[in-house]
């Protein structure tokens, strides 16, 4: 594969060089300054979440340390700017006096875990179902399509709200997990269950188009097996929409976890997630708005960054884009 440096040198020399689709997409993505900044923010947030214990140790902060002595009678930190200082970069949380930055970092670990696992499961199921329906067509496609339509007809949000308590109780009674572990399993399973039909429709449409291409027809004429056609011919050509869907689904599920935790049907205290922090902040929004603004602003920044990365990837991978 020709490296980017060699391509640039050859371009300056006036030579005509070939570029792979991956190189073209990367060059188009690099020209999108907003996408590059958003990608840097997204990678930084993920790394901070993964290495939260190390970051907190370096900064000398701990999410479990209480600072009750600096709280007034209303539970608000009785310090300038809510306790924001070198010791506590984002201040202290009202009610408990814990370090807000440490709670955001540790809370993001659970939020990202739910979002990443849900996205992975959604993509896996949607990819399999979409390829099966689009490649085999006929009755198989009809049965799969009707089942997908059936799931799309359900109001997913209200189904999750209604089934939360009984399903969590069933998971606990079965001995699979207890407490927040059962709630995490419930969220991942049901968000994936109602999330894959839309992605399968996208994959199906792509496979229906790819199935009629010359390279697939040539592989069939040469006697290639269905397994080889699916894994060697179709799947490598589906990576572009998969990447875009990943970049857009991840922030969506991140926000969904925060919403359900905020509503009290997701992760519960004493665990910490961004949804729980938002729920706690609303009680102090009038007397201590910093807590709400910092927590909500962090969630908005991360979701916006991932969405901008998804838009940039879509533009970079779309040959008809003018960017």
Topology:
Elements: H1 4-12, H2 21-30, H3 33-50, H4 52-59, H5 100-136, H6 138-152, H7 156-173, H8 180-210, H9 214-221, H10 226-234, H11 239-262, H12 274-281, H13 289-317
Helix pairs in contact: 2-13, 3-5, 3-13, 5-6, 5-8, 5-11, 6-8, 7-8, 8-11, 9-10, 11-12, 11-13, 12-13
GO cellular component, one term: plasma membrane
Membrane topology: Multi-pass membrane protein
Protein name: Peptide/nickel transport system permease protein
Please characterize this protein's 3D structure:
This protein is an all-alpha fold and 323 residues long. The protein has helices at residues 4-12, 21-30, 33-50, 52-59, 100-136, 138-152, 156-173, 180-210, 214-221, 226-234, 239-262, 274-281, 289-317. The protein is globular and about 80 Å long.
CATH superfamily of the domain at 108-269: MetI-like
The geometry reads as: globular
Strands, total number: 0
- The protein's oligomeric status is single chain
Strand content: under 5%
Give helix % range: 55-70%
Number of helices: 13
Give the C-level CATH assignment of the domain at 108-269: Mainly Alpha
CATH topology of the domain at 108-269: MetI-like fold
Radius of gyration: 24 Å
Low-confidence parts lasting 5 or more residues at pLDDT below 50?
Answer: none
Name given to the CATH architecture of the domain at 108-269: Orthogonal Bundle
What structural category arises from helix and sheet content? mainly alpha
Mean pLDDT: 83
């Amino acid at each position: 594969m020709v490296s980017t440096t060699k391509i640039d040198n050859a371009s300056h020399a006036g030579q005509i060089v070939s570029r792979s689709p991956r190189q073209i997409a990367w060059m188009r993505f690099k020209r999108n300054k907003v996408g590059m900044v958003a990608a840097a923010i997204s990678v930084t947030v993920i790394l901070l979440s993964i290495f939260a214990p190390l970051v907190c140790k370096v900064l000398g902060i701990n999410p479990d340390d209480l600072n009750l002595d600096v709280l007034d009678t209303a539970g608000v930190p009785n310090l300038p700017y809510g306790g924001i200082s070198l010791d506590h970069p984002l201040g202290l949380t009202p009610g408990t006096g814990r370090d807000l930055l440490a709670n955001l970092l540790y809370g993001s670990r659970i939020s990202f875990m739910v979002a990443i696992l849900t996205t992975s499961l959604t993509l896996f199921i949607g990819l399999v179902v979409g390829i099966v329906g689009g490649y085999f067509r006929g009755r198989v496609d009809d049965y799969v399509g009707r089942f997908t339509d059936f799931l799309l007809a359900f109001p997913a949000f209200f189904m999750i709200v209604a089934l939360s308590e009984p399903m969590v109780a069933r998971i606990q009674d079965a001995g699979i997990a207890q407490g927040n572990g059962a709630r995490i399993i419930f969220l991942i399973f049901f968000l994936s269950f109602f999330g894959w039909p839309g992605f399968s429709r996208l994959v199906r449409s792509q496979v229906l188009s790819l199935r009629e291409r010359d390279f697939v027809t040539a592989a069939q004429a040469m006697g290639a097996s269905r397994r080889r056609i699916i894994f060697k011919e179709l799947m490598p050509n589906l990576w572009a929409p998969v990447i875009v869907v990943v970049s857009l689904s991840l922030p969506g599920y991140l926000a969904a976890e925060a919403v359900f935790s905020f509503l009290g049907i997701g992760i519960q205290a004493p665990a910490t997630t961004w949804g729980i922090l938002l729920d706690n902040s609303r009680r102090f929004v009038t007397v201590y708005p910093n807590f709400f603004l910092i927590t909500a602003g962090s969630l908005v920044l991360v979701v916006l960054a991932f969405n901008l990365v998804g838009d940039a990837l879509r533009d970079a991978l779309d040959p008809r884009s003018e960017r």
